[in-house]
Amino acid sequence: LRVNPFLEHVTGRRPDEVWGEDWFAAMVPPGERCPAREATLRALAGEGGEPIIYPVLAVDGRRRSVEWANRALNGLGGEACVLAIGHDLSALEEAQRRALQAERLAAIGEMVAGLSHESRNALHRSQVCLEMLGFAVEDRPEALQLIARLQAAQDDLYRVFEDVRTYAAPIVLDVRACDVAEVWRAAWAQLKSSCPGRDDELLEVIDGVDPRCAADPFRLGQVFRNILDNALNAGAGPARVEIACRRTDLDGRPAIRVAVRDNGTGLSPEQRRRIFEPFFTTKTRGTGLGMAITRRIVEAHAGRIAVGEGGGPGAEIIVTLPRGLP
Amino acid sequence: MNSALRIAVADDEQDVRDYYQRVLPRLGHQLVAVARTGRDLVEQCRALRPDLIITDIKMPDMDGIEAAEKLSREGPIPVILVSAYHRPQLFERAKGDHILAYLVKPTKQADLEAAIAIAMQRFGQFQALRKEAADRGQALEERKLVERAKGLLMKQAALDEEEAFGRLRRLARDRNQKLADVARIILAAGEDPSSPVTS
């Protein structure tokens, strides 16, 4: 087996690592080996010019989808060979996934907008009846206790509903010059005001980086509230959150990179992979939409959000925002 | 904080109307009208002139924004909108200065209580500003009248400015009238009335 450097680019496997190995055993995920092998044998027999799509495994365990054109090759010391030219489809499939996702969101958004009015009306009727019931049983503490529990359940329902609506609704940005440091400080202050008494700490490493960019300060506030809320609840003890800011560029344009690191238990490989997926949550309460909404907002700003690669005990979320929108 | 207010409410849901009937007296206010539609609200409020209107937006036959607009044209009245919708088009329509709060359903008693207090404070401030502007307008108007009457006297009785103004002041004092009222009489007569009055 011989490979060109492109394979390393796609999979992270170095050519000398796979040199002489069995291609299928080394590079193809188990369930895909049969059709891959058959296509190669057909090519060896000089038939079947149709390209075939099968994935290869990258070092990090992820699959890369590749389209293969196989052709029998004579030469190379008289041995029968197959030249397999691969075309990496991952980016294309990712683009398709995003398009599908956008389409699905638009459909959900339409549905939720339609539901929004009637559900709020129904929740309002429920709310006013609950309050009237409270007036009627004012002298019965155990009944009031039940009403309080009903109210909490209704508040949860309302929050879930509003989260889904926020997630699915189209994001319209009100972009202006905005000091990102001011935004995260306001988000921190707001979160801290709802959990007073804890000895949490926010450290900033700005080092003279200009923290301004063109953004929607309200939406960006949501981004930092969601990230900082996770950071504050990442561990058992008081949180120590570090925000480091530096200059970078994004697709060739000047950008600002903000890394938020906590001192919590960190993220498992599954959490790292799925943290931005809608409805993925590790909390017992909550919709699992917070980070998905966060990603939508950052991407609406033509920015990026990712989990930090570095070690360290806690989790690190990195937000990269272009200085000015295109 | 607010003394008892006479409040009119409108909502097309029976539950919500019942709620206002119970919660507003508990907050120390008097419910003077309960309407089911926008038109109903307009008709009831025309006769009653409540201190505050709390209304839903989407209702049969006339919506709350339109009803509030009709009523505010007949005299200043503070309005709180309570709606399940929150769409920019509605905010745009609700920009009249009589709309002092916009609550999105579901709301709780605390939301309503705060909105009423803030709305009434703002309305008080608006009214004070309106009165101030009106007073200034009137003062300006009166000064213009006095100037014109003075001019007339100067021309007809061949007086200088100081003498004309002195005569106006004397007239006002003698007849126990405001300077502007005397000026108005002089201008209406188109001549100097001092001779027949004083002779």
Secondary structure layout:
The complex is a heterodimer of chains A (326) and B (199).
Chain A: H1 5-11, H2 15-18, H3 23-27, H4 33-44, E1 52-57, E2 63-73, E3 81-88, H5 90-136, H6 141-168, E4 176-179, H7 180-194, E5 201-205, E6 212-215, H8 217-232, E7 240-250, E8 253-261, H9 269-274, H10 290-300, E9 304-307, E10 316-322
Parallel strand pairs in A: 5-7
Antiparallel strand pairs in A: 1-2, 2-3, 4-6, 7-8, 8-10, 9-10
Helix pairs in contact in A: 5-6, 7-8, 8-10
Chain B: E1 6-10, H1 14-26, E2 30-35, H2 38-48, E3 52-55, H3 64-73, E4 79-83, H4 88-93, E5 99-104, H5 109-156, H6 161-175, H7 179-189, H8 194-198
Parallel strand pairs in B: 1-2, 1-3, 3-4, 4-5
Helix pairs in contact in B: 2-3, 5-6, 5-7, 6-7
Provide a compact summary of the structure:
The complex is a heterodimer of chains A (326) and B (199). Chain A is α+β, with helices and mostly antiparallel strands and 326 residues long. Chain A is 46% helix and 21% strand.
Query: What's the shape of chain A?
Result: elongated
- Give the distance, in angstroms, between the N- and C-terminal Cα atoms of chain B: 61 Å
The number of helical segments of chain A is 10
Average pLDDT, all residues of chain B: 89
Low-pLDDT regions of chain A: none
The helix tally of chain B amounts to 8
| Sheet of most strands of chain B | 5 strands, parallel
Average pLDDT for all residues of chain A = 85
Low-confidence stretches of chain B: none
Question: Helical percent range of chain A?
Answer: 40-55%
What is the strand tally of chain A?
10
How are the strands ordered across the major sheet of chain B?
A: 2-1-3-4-5
Structure summary, number of beta strands of chain B? 5
The coarse silhouette of chain B is elongated
The gyration radius over C-alpha positions of chain A equals: 26 Å
Q: What oligomeric state is this?
A: heterodimer
- Rounded to the nearest angstrom, the radius of gyration of chain B is 26 Å
User: What structural class results from the helix and strand content of chain A?
Assistant: alpha+beta
Class from secondary-structure proportions of chain B: alpha/beta
End-to-end CA span of chain A:
46 Å
Estimated share of beta-strand residues of chain A: 15-25%
